[in-house]
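One example copied in:
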Amino acid sequence: MHKGRLEAFTDGVMAIIITIMVLELHEPAGPGLRDLFALWPVLISYVLSFIYVGIYWSNHHHMFQAVTAVDGRALWANLHLLFWLLLLPFCAGWIAADGLARGPVSCSGSISSWRRWLTWCCRPA
């Protein structure tokens, strides 16, 4: 498989992730700044999640500059990464709804933990 196909697929999935997150942003209940400030958990959750996805997209792009061929192991590793990133909008919405409660924050942190595990599993032999 040519690496361009995998890059294009990953770009598409990451674009969908960002789209799902932005669809969770709703307009304030009224015209005042207080109404906007009432949405701060949602906005902070979106901004942090957007940065998180952006970092992964940038790292993926730079990593694939060095790749010459894609094998089955790389495909499965990429799918594993995308699976965990696809849970990010869920966690971001949960954090926005319940603030910095233990459950939502643990959900977000587990995504990072699984990503670290993936990095460890896919290291060169």
User: Anything to note?
Assistant: Residues 19 and 44 are 16 Å apart (CA to CA). The first helix runs from residue 3 to 23.
